[in-house]
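ENTRY TYPE: protein
CONTENTS: sequence, structure tokens:
***
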Amino acid sequence: MKELQELLEELPPNLQKEVLDFAEFLLEKSKKRPEGAPHFQWAGALKDLGDQYTSVELQHKASDWRVGEK
């Protein structure tokens, strides 16, 4: 199997640029991935409102709070 460098050298310059762009994209994408398992620090944060609202009402209320509505 040919090495990446050998394959790259066989390509015309415009395609070499595409390979470079794609490699940079993959590198950036890999940096954005969170490491480890997700943390759910927010879990149970609205528990005290359970007596006042149904779960569906809480979902709507939380959505309103996220966008800044009252």
Observations:
- The two ends are 62 Å apart (CA to CA).
- The CA atoms of residues 61 and 67 lie 10 Å apart.
- DSSP finds three helices and no strands in the chain.
